[in-house]
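Researcher: Structure prediction, please.
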Amino acid sequence: MSETADKTDKSATAAESPALATPRGRRAAAQRVREARDRLTSTSGTRPAFDHELLRQYAQTRLSASLVVILLVVATGMLSSLWIPTIGAVVWTFGILSIHAIVVRYCSKFLTLPSTPALTKKWRLRFIVLDLLYGLAWTLILIHPSGIDVVSNTLMLFVMLLVVAVSSMLAAGLPIAAFAATVPVTVAIATNFVLRGTLDDYILAALAVTAEGYFALLAHRLHSTTLATLEARAEKDALIGELEQAKAISDEARHRAESANVSKSRFLAQMSHELRTPLNAILGFSEVMKSEIFGEHAVAVYKDYSSDIHNSGVHLLNLINEILDLSRIEAGRYELNEEPVSLVHVVADCHHLLKLRASSRGITIHEVFELDMPKLWGDERATRQIVLNLLSNSIKFTPQGGEIWLKVGWTASGGQYLSVKDTGSGIAEDEIAIVLSSFGQGSNSIKSAEQGAGLGLPIAKSLIDMHGGTFTLKSTLRVGTEVIVTYPPERVMTALAPMHAPPLQPDRPPEGLTSDKHRARHKPIMSAGTGL
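Model: Predicted structure follows.
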């Protein structure tokens, strides 16, 4: 039992070892699984039969209880001198102690031997024979009382019960050995009572046989409990081994994936010059050809071709810039150039840049800004990219004649938030996680004529995470989408803020203006469609 516990502890320790990710570690884990499964295989007809473990428990129990057996033998030898000659009691005591010494010696030797089926079978037979000799030795002292009075009968029955109880407990790991040690004693005592021929003796014989049956049943129950415990431990060892194998395989796959991802990110981060240089040449020459700086084209359609080349180059450059930005973020090479930034001014500038695009689609953009907002300590370029990505996404997926709301204000904790809300097609709830992953696109994006690379939202989320803020996307299909980004209070430059405290608002922008006083603090609504 201790061997199984030791193996379990070793397995639990190895489960946390990084050596499992190596081929040698995986082979060792597989070997432990096979050993645990082998212990579930029967060699003696029972299932499961842990023969070696049961014999080890038997030997350890006999060794630990050797002093108890010696005391029992000595006490019985002293009592037996009342009905047999003293020399006979001494000879009997010496003889049974010799048998006990042999059992103890064999048990100690067995515990030092390796576990093999042949040795286990051989030692199992030895222990059964020794217990049989031990039981026969007890019959020599119990079937020769000096008289037939009640006291002698009671004493003989008491000693018999004590011997049977102790033997049954000690040999519970090997039930056949328990029977070999107790059955001869019980048969001798019961036969002795029956031969006397009195009613009281018959009753005592019946009591002796009943006691033997009770202790035999108790030994069987103890054996079953021990067997169930060993089976549970072996199955736990097998499960731990299988978990070790699965963890080793998972760790190796994760290491390969992380290594490949880092290599990819480093490669893309280092390819900025190699990718942008030819694109700049394409854009420059196509711009010259489109503008006909060196003269008109002989064929008018060449001007249209030049315009298409220029537009395609701009689109490709924007896509490369997004990929490179995301690669630098994932590789940990994106550094924030922090400085005082006015969130309101950045949002207003981005609105101005995209106003023409929104107007061409008949989309109205409303601005709802808090007045006297202090500056933030952050990266202006990253903040501008966040706003442009969110606003361009809203314009892309808002139908003609739709509306977009840009809101900037205070959070309840003293930070600042930006909200971009549109009346577009919306995103299904089960697709939100997809659109927030790199290159992820929802079903509406795939159907849209203006498909992108699926990098706008992941880049915006990564950039706001680098600022220590939060990114929240809420959307309802065929109703609209709202994206809220918040900057933490520690990035607000309170030294430049007005003396009054910011209004306590929820950590999300308000759904609408709820009071005249609230409206007064906001800029007038500006419409991109009207050009105001």
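Model: The beta strands are 338-341, 364-369, 376-379, 403-410, 416-422, 470-476, 480-487.
Researcher: Thanks, that helps.
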